[in-house]
Design goal:
Blueprint: E1 3-5, H1 34-38, H2 45-58, H3 62-78, H4 80-92, H5 98-111, H6 121-124, H7 129-143, H8 148-155, H9 157-164, H10 173-180, H11 193-207, E2 227-229, H12 234-238, E3 246-248, E4 251-253
Antiparallel strand pairs: 1-2, 3-4
Helix pairs in contact: 2-3, 3-4, 4-5, 4-11, 7-8, 7-11
């Protein structure tokens, strides 16, 4: 069964290189991440997503960006209900292909149909795409130890009021986040898994804009051709090919023993 989904508007996300890394050895650029990659386990899918954020943040080469894409893809494939939407949105930020980015955001909307929007806040508050992106980048930076964008958010009275909309769902509340934004050292905050997932749910809801379900997007978008998303193949959009979740001896493999 095929479902046609309209494009979700012009891309406002920062973009880099597109594609998913093949299950082949990586070069010297991957060495800095070897120890972290080798302890990843599919029983802990959130760790793939977290490391993907760190690698994407520090990436200086196409190969490093490919590592980030694979980490996001694995996280989304292993835990589609919890991380599928966030993984698709993260992958959309790593492509220069606007059409591909729109398809990934459409897939995120479909995967995110079950996202719980805290306290009905998303129904009461309209957030423009640029602000949604700023909040997502600030949250992502905070999780990887960079606090400058979060500090800019809490120092802006308008954006601070917006953040307070999710005060009950944010880890420690807005007051705690504001305090954390003043940290000078670049170190990852001590967040529990449910706290990280709460932030990701807010980001996914914001970046999906006013589209609540994929079925609400069945429409034309000007003269652009309709996006075609196969529901039964969304997992391939997140990670093309076989799911190889273990990093051993410089390559991705299917079992922990390689």
């Amino acid at each position: 069964m095929r479902n046609h989904v309209m494009t979700l508007g012009a891309s406002v996300l920062v973009s880099f290189a597109f594609g998913l890394i093949a299950a082949a050895p990586m070069g010297s650029e991957a060495k800095d991440w070897t120890s972290r990659l080798s302890v990843l386990d599919p029983a802990r899918p959130l760790e793939y997503f977290e490391l993907g954020e760190e690698v994407a943040d520090a990436a200086a080469t196409d190969e490093q960006r490919a590592i980030a894409r694979r980490l996001f893809g694995i996280a989304g494939r292993i835990d589609p209900e919890g991380l599928g939407a966030s993984a698709a949105l993260a992958l959309a930020t790593l492509t220069t292909d606007l059409r591909a980015a729109d398809r990934l955001r459409a897939a995120a909307a479909m995967l995110g149909d079950g996202i719980t929007r805290p306290g009905g806040a998303a129904d009461r508050t309209t957030v423009d795409p640029l602000t949604a992106l700023e909040i997502s980048e600030a949250f992502g930076g905070f999780r990887t130890g960079r606090t400058s964008k979060l500090r800019q958010l809490v120092d802006d009275p308008i954006r601070l009021r917006l953040l307070k909309t999710w005060d009950a769902s944010l880890p420690g509340g807005v007051k705690w986040l504001a305090e954390q934004s003043r940290r000078s050292s670049r170190s990852r905050p001590d967040l529990a898994e449910d706290e990280i997932l709460a932030m990701l749910r807010i980001e996914a809801g914001l970046l999906q804009g006013n589209q609540r379900t994929w079925s609400s997007m069945l429409d034309l978008d000007g003269d652009e051709p309709l996006l075609e998303i196969r529901v039964d193949r969304i997992d391939e959009m997140l990670l093309d090919g076989e799911l190889l979740p273990y990093w051993r001896d410089g390559r991705w493999v299917a079992t922990p023993r390689g």
